[in-house]
Structures are given as C-alpha cells and as structure tokens.
Write a structure and sequence with these properties.
The complex is a heterodimer of chains A (302) and B (453). Chain A has 302 residues and is mostly helical. In chain A, 71% of the residues lie in helices and 1% in strands. Chain A has helices at residues 5-39, 56-62, 65-98, 103-115, 118-128, 135-148, 162-170, 175-185, 190-198, 203-231, 235-240, 252-261, 266-291; strands spanning 42-43, 51-52. Chain A has a two-stranded antiparallel sheet with strand order 1-2. In chain A, strand 1 (42-43) and strand 2 form a beta hairpin. The longest helix of chain A has 35 residues, at 5-39. Chain B is an alpha/beta fold. Chain B folds into two domains: 36-161 and 324-386, D-Maltodextrin-Binding Protein, domain 2 (3-Layer(aba) Sandwich), CATH 3.40.190; 162-322 and 395-446, Periplasmic binding protein-like II (D-Maltodextrin-Binding Protein, domain 2), CATH 3.40.190.10. Classes of the chains: A mainly alpha (302), B alpha/beta (453). The A-B interface holds A 43, 45-48, 65-66, 129-134, 151-159, 244-247, 258, 261-264 and B 91, 94-95, 97-98, 115-116, 119-121, 259-267, 332, 402, 404-405, 408, 411-412, 415-416, 418-419, 421, 430, 434, 445.
C-alpha cells in the first residue's frame, strides 16, 4: 500500500531525529571499520599513500612472535578473568538478594568502582600492588612469612605475577555485572521458589534449580560482554606495566597501538585489528552455540 | 508581544558562553600566559600555530621564549606565534599532517625526526639554511646530528640532553670513596660497598640498579663498545659487547635475587616525586640526564650529589654519553613555512636559547655558552653536560629508522635476562633477528641503508 503524505512526513521527522546517530555510526564506526579492512591489505604509514601488498600482512602475523605472545596473554587473561568475574558477580548478587537490610547501600558500594575512570583505577592499583608499601603486600606479608617463610611477590615487576595481578584487579569492576544479575534475580517469580520450598528444596537447591536457569540469558549476556571486554583491555596494561615485564602483560590491543602509533605500521596494525575482531566474533559465536539449549527464555515454547 | 522561545534561549546561552570564553582568553593573554600579547599588537602579522609537548616548568620556559619573540623579533618579522600545549604531540602531528592540517611548528623529540622524515611528514630546512646562509658551525655537531636524516636537516635542536652518572657524595664519604668510578668494574665494586640490608636481610639501599630509572634498558651495549648497525644494513654487527652488557645486568639480578630485586624496585617511587630512588637516597648511583638537577632541587635540595661520565667497560679518554634533543619541526603542508623558519632562527639564537634552555635548567645547542649562562642557570652542572656533547664517543639516538622496534626488542631482551627467562646470548639473538627483519623490510620499502652508529 502506498505511503500517505502524513506517514511519509512522520517518517522523515523520525529519520531527522535519528540522523545524528546515523551520521555518527557511518562516520565513526562503519567507515573506519571497512577502511581498516582495506588498509589491512596495504603497507600504510598514515603519512604516505597506502601501497597494496596483498596478504603479506596476514602472512607476517602468522610468523610474528609478538602477536602470538600478545594473543596468549589475552587468552590467559580471559580464561581466568571471565569465570572469576561471572562467579564473583553472581555470588555477590545472590548474597545481596538474600540480604534483608541495607541492600541498597551495598548495591551502591559494589557499583561505585564502576564510576571511577579506568586511568584512576590503574594508578590506584599500581599503588596497591607496590611490593614494599602497597596494601596488598601489607596484608599478605605477615601470613606468608609466618606460615610459609615466603616473601610477598613483586606483582607488577614480576613475569609470573604481573598478569595474575591484572586478573585480580579486574574483579574490582564486577559491580555492573552484579547489578544486572541482581535485577534479573529479583525478577524471578516468587511462586517458583515457593513451589521449590514445598518440595523441600534448600538454599543451594533453589539457587541451582530455580535461580540459575531463570537468569541464564543474563549470564550468557554477561559472558559475551566479558569476552568482548577482555579482548579490548588496554588502559590498565598501558599505564601499569607498559606490556612488561618481558611482555608478560603485552595485550593485543596494546600491540595494535604500538604498531600504529609508535612504529607507524598502520596497515599491519589494521590487519592485526581485523584478526582480533575475528577472534572476538568466533569466541562470541562459540559462546552462543555452547549456550544453545542451556539458556531458558520465558517466551520460548518448550 | 512575542514570547521568548527555546531557540532564543539557546541562542542567548551560546552568545553568553562565547562572551565568557573571549573574556577568559583576553584575561589570560594579559595576565596569565607570558607567550601571549595584546591582540591589537599582533594585528596584521602572520599568525603561526606552534604545538609544544612539554608541560610544567619546561613549558613555562617555552612560553617565556615565545612571549619574548612575540614582543620583540616577531614585531620585526611581522609574525605572531600562538603557542599551544599539546600532549602526545608526535601522534597528533602525524594525524593532522596526514589530514592536511598540520600546525606551522611542532616541538617534537629528535627520535621522531627519522620516521617522520622517512614518511615525508617534515619540511626539510636545507633550502632555508642555504637561502639565509645560516651558520650551522655555531652549533654542537652531535646535537645537529640528532635532527639530520639522509644528509638533510629536518629540524633544529632546541634543547639538547646528554646523560651521565649521578652519585650520592654523602654515601661515597661513608665508604671512604673519593672519586666516581671510571670503569664498569669500579662501579660494581663501589655499588657492593654501598648496598645496605635491614636486620631481616631485606635490601634497603642499593649502590646501583640497571632498572632505576629503567629508561635505557636497550642501550647498555654502548658502554661496552657496541654498535647498533654497521652501515651495510646489518643489525648488531658485533654481538659480543651487547652480550657482555646483558651478562653484566644478569650478574646484578643473580647477586641480589630476582624476587628481591623485583620487590625493592617496585617500592621505588615515580621519577617526578620525592620518592624517586636517587632523590630519596635509596640508590647511590644512577644514570640520568641534564634535567635531573631540576628534580633534585625540587624534592631534596639538600642532597649531596655530583656528576661524572657514566663508566664504560674500559677506561676511555672520551666519555660515553647518550645525545638526544628536543627539536622544532615544520610539518609538511604547514601553511607558513617561511615565517616558521624565522621563528626557529630566533629560538636557536643565543637570545632564544638563553631564555629557553636557561629556563629549563639545561644547556644549549650552541657551541659557545654565553658568559653568564652557567652562573644564572639553576643547574650547577650545566657546563659538564654541555661538554659531554663534544665527546667522540657520544652516541646519537634517533638516526636509526626502526629505532622504536630496536628499543622494544632490546628492552624485551634485557627484561628476559633480568627476569631469568633467557640467557643474554639467546635473548639478544632473538631480538637481533626481529630487528633485522624489520630493518630489511624498511630498507626494501624506502631504499635507504642507515649509516654506522
């Protein structure tokens, strides 16, 4: 059916209102995205015109030890920080839900770190991890020396402890995840808990059989967001370790930055960025596929 | 009467905001920023945009210099320089140059001259120098070299820097040491005597530590006679000096224990803080540059210290030192290159240098320091650092086209050894292979083999 003049005008007004967003999307996301795919096939230093080099950049990536080291770092970080983050946030939200008094205060406290800029968080944690004067070692020193005769680690200066320190630090920002879980948990129908209680279910049984299945879509959402977030970690290693020591915290995003703005190898950096994008896409698809049949959606037919 | 609608309010707010910005700007020009002058005074002049990287006292010195120019020589040149403090100036200049909107002048570091020149991002100064018969002989050759690439001068050094050994004289007195070390072996022996442990055996003071401040992990081989390239395209043509330098560092980490070193190192404060390891008396000897006395004056004025050439493996007649410089460039595509050159000429003149380098507590690029320069300078060792620039053993940082890669790989090799993850020879071989690969690509791309250095 042909669109009436009134309808067309309404559509035009609607388009006019979203046009800033469309322009932003096109200029700042779509154009750079597709341009970077093209630049990935060139030798491009920004200051000179790009030269087409075919798949040389991708062949270079395959034989690039720094790329593989950076990928290893980010995969190890993701392997520990995602499960830890999900479990911690989930546990906190369940505890907050079970709490009777002061829940809103605790909720605000857990969310507060989220409001602190990442740069500030990085500087703050650099001090917390200071081996001699930092709070972390201040707490660890006595038990480690008394019971194990050991010294607390040098954290950010140590190849063994720098990455675990960043994983530990990532727990600082589980507040957002916690609030999302909590919102969903509080949305779980009470009659399900009452029915489970009638069947004699205790706290753990109710959590396992009612809460977790009911909030499974949110768990999946948080896992996907965490995967994306892990592969984009940049500020913390850039400020706290510079990727060291001995590339122990050399994240892929940091490598892309160095290639583009320190070595002026923008074409190669674009190729690495595309590989990073494909890895994130692949892992997200994998997470979605693994979740198929395990996630409960209320609107779906049984 | 027509009522006032939202558009009127928005327009009114914009006008008010613009008026407020203009008022603040005018106030700053008159009362706060010495670089600016009354707008009436620069009417009719060519307005240059000058991006400068520094903040703090270094920027204040640049502001004073620009202000003097705008009030004096700029009037004669019919040029007004608008100074803008710009962080990450190398990245921003690169992006704006690529976009065709570079500033007229960019204050950069000399290590970026080669990569920028290679990619056609800078205006060569050669034609200006030839046209004006500008006297380059007045300048210390090593400082000019920091800005030369492919036999052309792409920038003028504005504030040079050399490095040396800073040592704590009070600590030296404690151990009965009269003179600074001349060789690495002497440095090691003094360092051991300066070490102190507490009752529990924890290190509380170190004589010397390679990772304090840790800015030059990639360059220790120079003090053992190493070169980074042979002028024929080979990287680390003689590996032995570099291997010996890393073995030297490894011996320290092994001696103290790597865990203990990591621990004590991470307890040191930031460079620009009262907890700076040398300033706070936690390390007795450090390698540092001409800027260091500024920070000692700021955080521990009473510190008894002195300076000497950094020791080398064998005692040499000529000191080994690192030469770098702050420099000023005219990006390619700048709108007023001739006027920009007029300002550069003044900035590197004795008058400009006195204000700029004197204000920063550093020495000059000029061979001859003005009579009262050292006396007025807040840095008591400024003449010593100036003399270092004349050393034939000075190594000039920045002329290597893949320097960023070199520093990254060599720094990583150092850390591998320091952390006990690799032996010096293996770590260096891996680094050399990576740098060589990148240099080969660079040579093929730009048809240029860097000279021996």
């Amino acid at each position: 059916m042909a669109m009436g003049g009134r309808q067309r005008r309404r559509n035009m007004v609607g388009l006019l209102f979203v046009s800033p967003w469309i322009c932003g999307l096109g200029l700042f996301i779509l154009y750079p995205f597709f341009a970077s795919i093209l630049y990935g096939f060139t030798d491009y230093s920004v200051l000179r015109d790009p030269e087409f080099v075919g798949t040389d950049n991708y062949a270079g990536i395959a034989a690039d030890p720094i790329f593989w080291q950076s990928l290893k770092v980010v995969l190890v970080f993701a392997a520990f920080s995602i499960p830890l983050g999900v479990v911690t946030a989930l546990s906190l939200s369940i505890m907050l839900d079970a709490g009777k008094r002061g829940v809103s205060i605790y909720r605000a406290i857990f969310y507060l770190p989220q409001l602190v800029p990442t740069v500030v968080v990085a500087i703050l944690w650099t001090w917390l991890f200071n081996a001699e004067f930092g709070l972390v070692n201040h707490i660890l020193r006595w038990p480690l020396q008394t019971f194990f005769g050991a010294r607390p680690p040098g954290w950010l200066a140590s190849t063994s402890w720098a990455l675990p320190a960043l994983v530990f630090m990532s727990m600082w920002q589980v507040g957002q995840m916690t609030i999302i879980y909590l919102a969903k948990i509080q949305d779980v129908p009470q009659d399900l808990y009452e029915a489970a209680a009638l069947d004699g279910a205790g706290f753990w049984s109710k959590t396992w059989n009612v809460t977790l299945p009911q909030i499974s879509p949110i768990i999946l959402f948080n896992v996907v967001m965490a995967i994306i977030g892990c592969f984009q970690v940049f500020t913390e290693p850039y400020i706290m370790t510079g990727g060291g020591p001995a590339r122990a915290t050399h994240f892929l995003s940091l490598y892309i930055y160095k290639l583009a703005f320190e070595e002026y190898r923008m074409g190669y950096a674009c190729a690495v960025a595309l590989v990073l994008f494909l890895i994130i896409l692949g892992l997200t698809m994998l997470a979605l596929r693994a979740a198929r049949g395990r996630v409960y959606y209320a609107g779906e037919e049984a | 009467m027509k009522s006032i609608g939202i558009p009127h309010l928005v327009l009114g707010a914009l006008v008010l905001a613009a008026a407020a910005v203009a008022a603040v700007d005018r106030y700053e020009q008159k009362h706060v920023r010495p670089a600016f002058i009354d707008p009436d005074d620069w009417a009719g002049r060519t307005k240059l945009t000058y991006w400068e990287k520094w903040s703090g006292f270094e920027f204040e010195a640049i502001e004073k210099a620009v202000g003097r120019y705008n009030r004096t020589q700029g009037r004669r040149d019919r040029v007004y320089v608008n100074l803008i403090n710009t962080s990450q100036v190398n990245v921003k200049t690169m992006i704006f140059t690529a976009g065709g909107q570079p500033p007229d002048l960019a204050g950069n570091w000399s290590i970026y001259v080669a990569p920028f020149a290679e990619r056609g991002a800078l205006t060569s100064l050669e034609k200006f120098i030839a046209a004006d018969q500008f006297d380059l002989d007045a300048y210390v050759p090593a400082y000019l070299e920091t800005c030369r690439y492919r036999d052309q001068l792409w920038a003028m050094p504005t504030v040079p820097a050399t490095t040396a050994l800073f040592y704590n004289r009070k600590m030296f007195r404690e151990i009965g040491q009269d003179s600074p070390p001349r060789t690495i072996a002497e440095l090691d022996a003094i360092a051991r005597k300066l070490d102190r442990r507490d009752g529990a055996g924890n290190l509380v003071r170190l004589g010397f530590l390679h990772t304090e401040p840790g800015w030059w992990k990639w360059s220790w081989g120079y003090y053992f006679g190493g070169r980074i390239t042979d002028g024929k395209g080979k990287v680390l043509p003689d590996m032995d000096p570099w291997v010996r330098s890393l073995a030297w560092a490894d011996a320290y980490a092994s001696h103290y224990g790597r865990g203990a070193v990591n621990s004590v190192q991470s307890g040191f404060g930031k460079f620009d803080s009262p907890q700076n390891a040398f300033v706070a008396g936690r390390v007795g000897m450090v390698i540092q540059g001409v800027w260091m006395p500024n920070f000692i004056n700021r955080y521990n004025r009473g510190l008894e210290y002195s300076v000497a050439p950094f020791p080398s493996e064998k005692a040499l007649d000529e000191p080994v030192t690192q030469v770098e410089s702050d420099c000023i460039t005219i990006p390619k595509g700048a709108k007023h290159p001739e006027e920009a050159w007029k300002f550069i000429k003044w900035l590197v003149s004795p008058e400009g240098q006195s204000i700029l380098c004197g204000g920063q507590g550093k020495h000059m690029c000029l061979k001859k320091l003005p009579a009262d320069f050292a006396k007025k300078n807040m840095n008591p060792h400024v003449e010593f650092f100036h003399r270092l620039g004349f050393s034939r053993k000075a190594y000039i940082v920045g002329r290597f086209p893949v320097l960023s890669k070199f520093r990254d790989e060599m720094g990583n090799a150092f850390e591998q050894v320091w952390q006990g993850k690799a032996k010096p020879g293996d770590a260096l071989e891996a680094a050399r292979a990576e740098i060589q690969k990148r240099l080969d690509e660079n040579v093929a791309r730009w048809q240029y083999v860097p000279p021996e250095q």
